[in-house]
Every structure is written in structure tokens, then in C-alpha cells.
Amino acid sequence: MAKRLGVTGGIGSGKTTVCRIFRVLGVPVFVADVVARKLMENDFSLRKEINAIAGRDLYVTGSLDRKELARIIFNSPEMLQRVNAAVHPAVLGRFDLWAGSSEAPYVIMESAILFEAGADNYVDRVLTLSVPVEERIARVMGRNDLSREQVIERIKNQLEDEEREEQSYYILNNSDNEMIIPEILKIHNDMLHFAGSRK
């Protein structure tokens, strides 16, 4: 049975880049956000539930109006909680099946809200990426069409770095001036050792 490593960090912490390096090392990666997006588009009962929470049809064009959903949930912690409560169990169920059928020594779940979603109960160890908030804001504004205020709003809806770090087995400083590949290799070797398949 494959061991499971959760990779998390706030918005703009570089999860995609770090997981790309793990993929090059041959580690299968489950990207929770991508799976959540697909389920929200294609799972009929989830679509119905999202519309019920929003109080209107967010699929008028045939696909989910993400901007409108973001507007609703990021302005209301209660709405965000209700949408998450609908989506998270479906995503975690998919991860469980996927990880259970893997032949690899270990697999990764990449999730921005790993702890908030209760996904830490589905993994053996957690790696948190730590990056100064200002650097994260600059990164997200540089890649997404979001204002500083919108980025800060999203950061507020996530755990503080310190809270994540306290609950993590590994912490990786992913600041722009850090050399991360040697650190990732160390974590990779440690996970192989933990999985009992150290080369």
C-alpha cells in the first residue's frame, strides 16, 4: 500500500512548482483543486447542492459560474463552509480510491486547504510550504487577474502558516531566493525510506 504525503501551503506558496519536481522524481500527484473543479462541473448531485446553497442556478451557461461562486463564498464564511462541506467528502473519496490503487512507494495529495478539509486524516505525513505573505501576494497578483484586496481576502480564508507548520512533519521554505531542489530530494528519500523502499 502506497504511503501518502500531503503537500499544502497558502495561495501563492508554490505548491504546483514543488509537486512538479516530485512528479519528475516519479511520484504520482493528486491535485485536490483540479479534482474538486471537475466534480463541481460534472457531478449532478453536487451541482444541485451548489445551486441550493447559492439560492440560484450558477450553471445557466451549462458550466459553473466560478466568478459568481467566488463572490458568494469569499464574502461569507458560512457559505464557504457549506460549499466545502459538499465538495470535500467527494474529493477525499476519490483520493482514497486513487491512492489505494497506486503501485508507487508513496503518492502525494496537493491541497491548499489540506487541514481545513480534514484531508490530513487521509495522509501519513504533511509537507507545508512556507513563504512570506508579501511574496505570496505578489506571486498571485502576477499570475492571476486579482487585486491585492482579493488576494488578501483569500489568504484570510486559509490557515496561518504557523498553524499549518505546527501540524506538519516537513516544512519547506519556498521563498524566491531559496534552493529547494536539495530539500525536496531529502524529503523524497525520507519518504522512500518511510515506505520501506529505499533504493
Question: How would you portray this structure in words?
Answer:
With 199 residues, the chain is an alpha/beta fold. It has a domain at 3-36 and 96-194: 3-Layer(aba) Sandwich (Rossmann fold), CATH 3.40.50.300. It has 9 helices and 5 strands, in the order E-H-E-H-H-H-H-E-E-H-H-H-E-H. A 5-stranded parallel sheet has the order 2-3-1-4-5, sandwiched between helices. The longest helix is centred in the middle third of the chain and has 24 residues, at 77-100. The protein is globular and about 50 Å long.
Tell me the fraction of residues in β-strands, as a range. 5-15%
Low-confidence stretches: none
Helical coverage, percent range: 40-55%
**Count of runs of 4 or more consecutive helical residues:** 9
Distance between the termini: 17 Å
Q: What is the residue-averaged pLDDT? A: 92
The rough form would be described as globular
Rg over CA atoms, rounded to whole Å, is 17 Å
Strand order, biggest sheet?
A: 2-3-1-4-5
Number of extended strands: 5
Question: H/E element string?
Answer: EHEHHHHEEHHHEH
CATH homologous superfamily identity of the domain at 3-36 and 96-194: P-loop containing nucleotide triphosphate hydrolases
In CATH terms, what is the fold-level topology of the domain at 3-36 and 96-194? Rossmann fold
**CATH 2nd-level architecture of the domain at 3-36 and 96-194:** 3-Layer(aba) Sandwich
Describe the main β-sheet briefly: 5 strands, parallel
